[in-house]
Protein 1
Amino acid sequence: MRLKIIRVVIIFLFLILAMDLIYVQALKGNYFYRLSVNNRIRVIPLEPQRGRIFDRNGNVLAESRLSFDVTVIPQDVLDKDMLFTYLGQVLKIDKKEIAARYQQRMYTPFAPVVLIEDVDKQTAMVLEENRFRFPGLYIQETFQRWYPSGKTAAHVVGYVSKIDSQKIKKLKNYGYSQQSIVGYSGVEEYYDQYLMGEEGGLQIEVNSRGQQVQLLGIRQPEPGRDIHLTIDVRMQEISSKVMEDKAGSIVLMDLDSGEILCLVSSPGYDPNVFTDLKRAKERNRLFIEPASPVLNRVIKGQYPPGSVFKTVMSVAGLSEEKVNRNTTYHCPGFYKLGNRNFKCAHIHYSQNIIQALGHSCNVFYYNLGLVIGPELITRYAHKLGLGELTHIDLPSEERGFIPGPRNRRGEKTGWYKGDTLNFSIGQGEVLVTPIQVVRMMAAVAKGSIPQVHLLKMIENEPLVTNSIIKVIGLRKDVMDTVHEGLRAAVVSSSGSARQMNMAGFEVYGKTGTAQTVKGKKTHAWFAGYNLQGSRRMAFCVFLEYGGSSYYAVQVTSDLFKALRKENLI
Amino acid sequence: MGKNIGLVIWAMTIVIIVAGLLALYSASYHNIRISNEVFYDQLLFAIVGLVIMFLISKLDYRNFYELAYVFYAGAVILLILVLVSGRHALGATRWFSIGGISFQPSEMAKFGLILTLARYFSTRNPSVSFETDPFGNLWPDLFVPLLITMFPMLLIFKQPDLGTALLFVGIFFIMLFASGLKYKYIAGFLGVCLFFLPFAWHILKPYQRDRLLVFLNPNIDPLGAGYTIIQSKIAVGSGKFLGKGWLSGTQNQLNFLPERHTDFIFSVIGEEWGLIGTIIVLGCYFVLIWSGLKIAEQVKDKFGMQLTVGIIAIFTLQVVINIGMVLGLCPVVGLTLPLISFGRSSFITFMIMLGFLLNLSRRRTVF
């Protein structure tokens, strides 16, 4: 009985389909046939205005301005030659050039082909007035992205470009189309969903001569949402200036909230080259330049931390009570392991942990490393966030690498005492990113790891961040001792960062001079924090192949002096 | 009769597959957007599929009674894995890759679901039990099978794949109906579901809502789904009575229909083979489903009957919804046309189900 009912329902459903097929194909067939022979429906996309990007004080970092594109629908063009000649005259472009673009960009007879982007308003109006003479010609309103701050915040903001085939595959369910402009790096990419808005369009029916007969449908585009970032464009400017002609990075972060105040990767690039068609050559050059200006060194550069890693060692040694603040090791200027000498920068004689941090004594940490053992070093490095993604709101962050006896980079196997010694001073296989170092410094200063982020608010909805601070449970005595050591580096007359000793501004920090490949200069690091002043910050200054850490300290000192002069910190 | 039904199933299957291959060849013919690899790929899978169908027809479906829950659990685990592993990708996460071959677990879940529901319903007799104690049996006869359906359905919905999720709802109701639960309870349950429908609206993604709204009025989205519906209707209609001829469809060749090798393949058939072609293909599906109904009537055990009903349900729903979609009668929800749309997982799943149908037909009188 039940099956009989199912059968009746199935017959009924199939009959509906059959009848509709008869209706559409047999009865209305001629109508649809006419529409299909010279397909009469055209779609003219209406681009949405992309959301703007602001810094923390409301300065514009990215905005979209109206521009006009000259577009044709190939099917409706009656006389291509005549049209191109006309366009050539009005726009003062070689006719052949226009014809070449047309060949290149046309893919179906009915999809609009953009021939000339961004013509000025005057020209656009002239063309619009003469449009009736040239069926198939359209002036399309679009938007051009403009970055007023140029190079200054390029690695934070990113840039936009026309969507590529790989991306469209992934994103087509999310309102993207072939014509979409999408973010390709930085915040432009990470928050693209908010910034992009929604595409609209006109659907029109045209007659056989390509003239519009009627408007079938319209959907207004929906503008994207504005985004406010935590960075301060004035700090960006000062940092960029300090880093001029140098490769490396500067990061300043608010200790308590995890807000990034300043993020500069050098050399930089001007994101406007990606939207300005006249600068195509510059754009192509960006990607082949050996200095890789597009690379965001702060989150994608992976470098050995060198002596900065001694901060981790100190936390590990004190927390595990392998040493206390009074434990001393003797430094004769080297450490002999078998018949190999592991060097120190100076002869430091007897050192406790505070002095060793301040002087950056290798021998102290060789001894400490052997006492702690590599497993615990690995554990503490991870605990302080090294070798872990910070999940900053930027795309494609790198993880870095923290080795261990059972986890070695490349083909290497086994683990020897020599490896532990190298590990203890941040050499060997250890790799970290500058953003991880900043976060580690915040962790040491506060005993908790804030969520590093760049977003302050979307439109008028502020970001709620206080729930995402991870407490890592460092003991107070451990933190106090490490503070003292990091302070000693600055205030001690023989401290490794003594140039930083400035009146009225207390800096805590650790230097690092990291060996790189043979024949290349060392990387220079200086990272730390300040605990008083108008804002508690963690910072990291990194100079790629910059030589001794001395230079990194020098850059930091110039930076802070300039920032203080402008009353920014 | 037994031999005959088997032959009919084979014949219809082959006609449909051939029609599909011709349409695929045409859809990818001299086309820059769709590579002709889709044709060769489908050809290969057609052969593999026929072998699988043959092998399964030789097995005894009752062996799968024991395996039903295993299939179900396997499918659910894969669905979870897809969601977890694909979490960071922005696009739909239906795809899952094992050893380089990607397949959609949601397709396997379809089959796992009907096997499991068939086994479960075969142990119940709601037409009797429900009358004696309607409230005591509400749980085992209605809510347990509902939960069995809902769990994989929600995972698929999350992917997001609205079409397959809705298909699961359809399968559930049809198999519930066949289980013999009294009309008044089914009607009552349907009423409750309808009451909650407005709430479901809010959990849809914006683009899914758009698609449903567009169905009501294609002009509100002339660029997206609305455009596709209008274009596919023009394609089908312009085929008129005899069609424009193979490889001669203009709508097809001019890149009008974005997904014409998958969800909108029927429009290619409509345009190139006309009403003759579409009615033949529709007729083949009908005969196939009709044979299924015959088997369901004659099969002696309840598990076999429910399994057959489940298979019929999937075929009917996908054929009707897909063709309805192309004709603008149903919203565009993304369901494939059985054995014709390009898509390996979907294709193989249908071949497996046909294999079961054959084997049910051979054993319908055996005890």
Protein 2
Amino acid sequence: MFEPQPMTKVIIAGSKDYMNIAIDAMYKHNVVHIADFVDEDEDFKIGKPHESITKLSERTVSLRSLASYLSIKGKEDIPNKYPESAIIDTIDAKTEQLDVEVTQVTDRISEIESKIKDVKDKKRLLEPLKSFNLPLDLYTGYQSLAVFVGTLKGIPNISDITTDYELETAPYGRGSVISLFVPREFEDDVQKRLQEQGFATLPLPKGEGIPKDIIVDLDAQLTELQSEKQKSEEDLADLRKKHIEYILASDEYLSIETQKAEAPLRFATTKNAFIVEGWVPTKDLGLIQSDVDGATNGHVMVSVDRSEGVDVEKVPVALKNPLPARPLEVLIRAFSIPKYNEIDPTKLMTFMYPALFGLMLGDVGYGLIVIALGLLVSRRIKSEGMRDLAIIGVYAGVFSVIFGFIFNEFFGVEIFGHKGFLTHVEYYPMLPRLDNVLTLLIATFIIGILMLTLGYMLGFVNEYKQHGLKHAVFAKLSWVMMLWGGFLVIALILPPLTTGSSIQLSAGLVGGLVVMIVGFILVIMGEGAIGIAELPSLLSNVLSYSRLISIGVSSAGIALAVNRLSDALFFSKGGIFVIFGVLLLIVGHGINTVLGILDSGLQALRLHYVEFFTKFYRGGGIEYKPFGFERKFTEEK
Amino acid sequence: MVDPIGAGLVALAAAIAVSTTGIAAALGEQVIGSAAIGVMAEDEGFFGRGLVMTVIPESIVIFGLVVALILLFVTLPSIG
């Protein structure tokens, strides 16, 4: 029930002449997980890729560059799959022709862009001079005159140097822009004076005409260039639309062909034969056997390797879970994929993860929001990982609603019961969290003990399968005994301790102590003195489950605070204040929902990863990756 | 009759329990968080595990919260 997909080890061997046919047959079914051949020796060499590989890479490079020009990323949905046969014959000619078409447009665009840049540069240079009515060519080319064109702070006063000058000024930025003509002999003095005021020379563009008119002219050019650019971009978009299916399909086709051509790199080959080691899900064994045999006329054999001593560590793992549990695999993968002979906890998590989440969030209103968000995301978002998380969110939301009814919370408000709106509705169990902290705290410890026990039991099964009964008793049963013995002892001595009465030596207490001590001895026998160091972790693991209630109470507390605040500040005043009250409610509960989802989600995950999984789960398995391809854009004919 | 000074001290004790453990958790998460971001720059697939590792020190503040809850909901009513 908790095992992954059963796998069978196969050896595929045959004549090299039939290797490519066998590769095609294997590829088509997408079930053989090839174990790469690495140990080369005198007899067996790693195979050589098919000779078409160079050509395939060249095609891939040119196609990908086209795709990047057209910004095609491969995530697009296309309505129709492209028949593969239509690609094979025409791919070279068509890619070349497309390349010409696209390059024409992109070249045109970059040409226009460089023109636009030139025009903008020129305009930027002319901008400061636009209030001067002197044609551009009259600023340069004088023998007896020095010309200063530039910016500076304030307005220069050079009347003490010479009165024979021509000055025009205009405000510019924080200072002003000037054009100043003085006789050559005063050039040095004037320059010094100007520099005191922070003079910076403006470079003058070449050209004729009055700057203002040139700018008008440049603006017209700019508009024209931009409309040209837009037109070219539309051309490019048209090209994209027209060829996207072809490009995506060819890219996929090339990826498939490349994978096939590179496959021999994973094979062992001799001069005339090839051998592939791999794993096939047992249910697909017959299919691949008959198909490879049929395609190669019996020249390639798929035989089952029944040799003893198969290393379990090397068996690829394909998780096998019913559809409703499959989204949870994402959480297992994030931790680590199980080994082939390990228990796959996905099914357990399908129930336990949402239950812990719901226990923490525990509010009908927030639960409904989580369900709605989950449904929305799972419909809208295409990313598989996000969709899985969204579906987990829906499960978690359902549990939040269930626990919301138990805790009688709707956005922090009590609905039912004598304190609620619907006073006549009473049901059982109804445990408002803020009034039952101690009860619920004890309940969380019990949940913790049960979950840890389950973890140890699964660990027992794993150890039993891997190392035998003795080891399982020492490593796992011992801890369960300490857990329950300790629990019994604490449960019996804590109440008298808190009330101050004397401790009764009951049968339960003695039994608990004995079980605990036997467990302790077993741990020492199994793990040595180092086992003592692990002891406190047992207590802290159980205490760790208190987060179930503390996070819940904080979330309920925040909800209550939001409600009371909006009531005291706004609703009690009435009138226009009601709007502010509603706003505060929306913002407050919105923030609390986000906090609740994040915190409950992460803490529930942590309780699984850190407290639960460590009791039985190691992971580190090899993920089953069959040799083949899920076609998205092409179809075989 | 509620002893106001006693009740105030209990409330203060609860505040200390939450705030000091909060600071401690923050210090822990600071180190792990920046390391996790560093790993994520290399390998984006680490996001899930990084996030979980980052919240591990959160246990400290949760224990503080439990202490505070017991003080507020169990101890405080009993002295009233």
